[in-house]
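User: Assemble these into one structure.

Assistant: Restating your components, then the assembled model:
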Amino acid sequence: MNNGKDNYALESKNVNFFYGSKQALENITMQIPEKKVTALIGPSGCGKSTYLRLFNRMNDLIAGTKVVGEVLVKNQDIYKNNVDLVELRQHVGMVFQKSNPFPKSIFDNVAYGPRAHGIKSKDQIAYIVERSLRQAALWEEVKDSLNKNATALSGGQQQRLCIARALAVEPDVLLMDEPASALDPIATQKIEELIMDLKQNYTIVIVTHSMQQAARVSDLTAFFYMGQLIEFGPTSKIFTNPSNTRTEDYITGKFG
Amino acid sequence: MSIHERALDQDLAHVQKLVVSMGQKVIYMLENSIKALIERNSKLAEETIQFDKEIDRLENQVDQAVYEIIALRQPAAGDLRNVIAAIKINNDIERIGDYCEGICRQAIRLNKMPALATAKGVAEMAKVAAMMLNDCVKVFDTKNISLAKKNILDDDKVDDFAHMLVDEIHEIMKKDPKSVDAASALLLVVSKLERIADQATNISEQVVFSVTGDNIKHRSYSFAHGDEV
């Protein structure tokens, strides 16, 4: 697939990012491996969400932004001119902090992506909807009410619906921007268990403000501070014996 | 962003204080155990056995404090290593208290029998073990890694004493079967002193882990010999 090169799902090489004249990311070089959960942590404004959104070009939606450097998805630079954004976002799905179901039925929410990608067969759509809802651990709770409006679901169910919706187009990568920060502990636990399940088949990058959540769900942790990548390594190392004192000070709550 | 004092810092300082105080109390216990043995003072031995209850009480206090820190403060990284080390050192110190108690029980037995000449060698060995105990408590209190290394290397001296004394005591037993009761009591004392020295090195190893994150157990000798810090 990639000529014997290392299997990184996502990679950035010397990436600098600007909001107008304000630089939000400085020289970020990082390789995110396939089928692992990578957590991005750091104080507010450190650049972690900006970094996450580079990988499906969500930052493009903000006027005056500029990317310098290479951002690679499966070894392809996604900021080259010829990149098809629809195709990119099919490969790299995203789940946001606030669940954002369409004001449609549960079924139509999940069917939306496959239909938009041209799948017309009703049987096939129904199959994809069920598979996606099962993958998102929501099927058992909604299988008898697929025509109910999605906005009637609880917050935790809505978030899992958004995950199902993202999975319906069969992405390789899921970007999650604080996916459980608005949820209660039980709904949070369900999302975390789901993340652990999904990593069998997907590469997951999660931004979280909860250090404990990063410790619980991720294989690798990256600590960002003031636009710089301070430390990136196995989560078990970062949370027991980080190399950098700024990482240690942050995860032990010594600064903030 | 600035470094600030956390509630956790106070909790950790509290545990540190408890463990150091426990360490000082077992130092006192060991001194009295040796004194009771050498001076054939059974009353002091009895008092020292009673004193072990204080060590047990402190052990429970440290355990409770550490459980609460883990449950309520969720320590990570250096803080986590610090509390893990504290709970293990707590256990080591409590065990040293038990060994002191054991020495006192043998001292009481020995005091009812004629003295053996080897007791002098045991007193020499006890001095080194006591020094090691002093040092490891100091290592814990001050996080002094070079002293930890010295402490780990000193264990050899105690081991050498132990081998020598065990041989000597066996000879005495062979030559004079009537000495078997006293000699076997003395063997137990030697073995407990040897274990105390081992526990002291365990404590130094835990401090190295707590400070550096490097688990040097089962290779502490090469660590102490090398020039790693």
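The mean pLDDT of chain B is 94.
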